[in-house]
């Protein structure tokens, strides 16, 4: 049974920047805090672990040094840190969505991905999503995510999806998650900004007047309304004191800006700027039902006969076989029974066909 009400929270928390152990300890502290408030689902910001690369535009030699440092302080799917997180999550009894720099688990690779790690209430890692297309300078930091990670999974509070930053502006992936039955949408961002004319000209938000120009604010409200999902938007906050110690910082938008939005596009909490906070709101499934009664994106307002979507579930892999070995195995597979001459003759008689024609068809099917 899916719960009729649930408590959602965004952990607008400052990481211990580029520090794996410090960030792990702080993450556990905030998960414990959420557990004490009976939070059902807790979402940490984009690459919260161990921080967004606001230094991405620095010189090439310094960029290389920082990339190596980031590799050493990021998480992988088989990281021992996940055991510590799992134990804390189990004790807190809540679902956790963790924005992280993910170190590839493919043998021989050191590539990083911008990922979401999904933990269930028992603390098990149940799914990963890797950002499909890093934005602008991010392409120098992260690889492109596997199409197969564009997915949802069922929980006791609803079907959960999730996207990262500008993925929330991508029309077709949004439609794909909706078609998969998404009800709860974690959305993660690297901060909140004022936009000065176009996306390439932005600055860190200083006050809530930024909602007039920041694309994130209307995007989260529209995502909620157009898909009738509960949106938990968690945005990164890092204090100026921390980033001032990094001479390479050239893209500081770490203002927070987290918010919680119901399926009618109504902001129930936030956005909160320039402070750490555990942003909490109560949601009721009747809020979704009421919106769907008026506009159901997967029901009476859907026209699959006019527009539909093809979704790939491919996993990117450097090695593929041409299938010749499997074919050769099939060609000589004696486990496939061959009809007797009597059976072939009966089939030929029943269908008024020459014996030789049916026999040749059987031989061809057997060898394939």
UniProtKB/TrEMBL annotation:
Q: Fetch the Pfam families from UniProt.
A: CN_hydrolase (PF00795)
Superkingdom of this protein's organism: Archaea
Record domain CN hydrolase: where: 6-285
Protein known as: Nitrilase
**Gene Ontology MF term list:** catalytic activity
Q: Report the source organism.
A: Natrarchaeobaculum aegyptiacum
The record's annotation in InterPro entries points to: C-N_Hydrolase, C-N_Hydrolase_sf, Nitrilases_CHs
Q: What family does the Swiss-Prot or TrEMBL record give for this protein?
A: Belongs to the carbon-nitrogen hydrolase superfamily. Nitrilase family.
